[in-house]
Amino acid sequence: MSFAKPTPVGYFFGQSVIALAERLRTGSLTSVELTQKALDSIESLNPILNAFVHVDAPVALAQARKADELFVQGQDLGPLHGIPVAIKDNIDTFDYVTTYGSEHFAGFKPSRDALCVQRLREAGAVIVGKTLTHEFAYGPTGDRSLQGAARNPWDTSNITGGSSAGSAAAVASGMVPLALGTDTGGSIRIPAALCGTVGFKPSFASVPVEGVFPLSASLDHVGPIANHVEDARLLFEVVAGRACAPVANPRPLRVGWISTGSFGPVDADLDRQVHQAAQRLFGESLQETAELEPLAAEMKDTLLVLQRAEAYDVHAERMQEAPHKFEQEVRERLELSREVRGWQYIRAQARQARLKAVMASLFERYDFLVSPSVPITATPVDAREVRVGEQDIDVRAAVLSYTSAWNLTGLPAISLPVGQVRGMPVGLQVIGAAGEDDRLLLVMAQRFVRA
């Protein structure tokens, strides 16, 4: 298996968690050694990429020593036992400062772990640090945060995408083999696509959000970023608190390619590359579908109303008492959010329920839907306009255009790295039916091999 490489790269670039776990169990590697590799990679690369915002070597190494001691005692806590994992900075950790990317919480240390982090610790994983989030996860570019902008490992003048900006950059560059992110409109899949990693957004509520700072309660999801689908599955199983069920009665797949342009303009070279990757992955099972195009505008508008109303609910007091502490762009988004009326929110909730039913009907005819994860490659940090074909479009709207519908409808969706266009990574998005997380992960693990 060959990988194109950014320069420079850390120890874990392209590495398989399964292979690392096997070495831990044979005794050819210890968790302390692995954790030190992560710390060394972070020390070398983080000044360039700004992926990690909080790292505490003594805390991480203490966890690793405990993991090794348990191995010596004959206790094996599972596939992630002794494996270094990074956590997005909007997810609570009792032993690391957690700022949510905002001056409002500078220096804040939670009193307890988020439930997903607690489950990781119980599985023996080593939490090595916190990764940069766009402030309060309210942005898809990853360049608006208390700690500045995360940088794309393939071109540090470019964005990582967001809001799980640091998590994607940390895995893509090889600082860690796994990271946890959150996704409200695409915030796992967007940076995964732009940085060249696997990123999985589970079905709504399949991973608990307790202890995760909310952005939009009806849209928030927690999920993994990894080098490989199988690694993402292992992390998902831990944070979901259950193992994936085997795929029963396999049948020929029915896969719908979402017609180009259904959710907005797409870079022509990127579209060609991603479609070719989908053809290689699914062969004759792939057929074009235009059924999403009439729904796209309604999906976008409905999500926007829900997200704005719910985001303002979270931040209303902060906006009244200390608006100056918000980064300007985030504050402007919240000022717009304040304008949503109660009747608009109620109608959006009704539309969301109807659109979920429409998607359930559609998935009676398809096993998966596929599209580009993001219709453009990474743009320069701070850029807010990009030319696609003959159009100049908003960068933030562009990167969200093919991901946000699946937050609205709560469907599982995964971004797979399928090569590069003009030297920058691109992603193929595969969407499954509601609750079919296991099938999506297991089928993709069987079929998808990184080129």
Automatic annotation (TrEMBL):
Name by which UniProt lists this protein: Amidase
Transmembrane segments: none
Domain (Amidase): residue spans on this chain: 33-441
Coiled coil: none
Family: Belongs to the amidase family.
Native source organism of the sequence: Pseudomonas fluorescens
Domain of life: Bacteria
GO function terms (MF aspect): catalytic activity
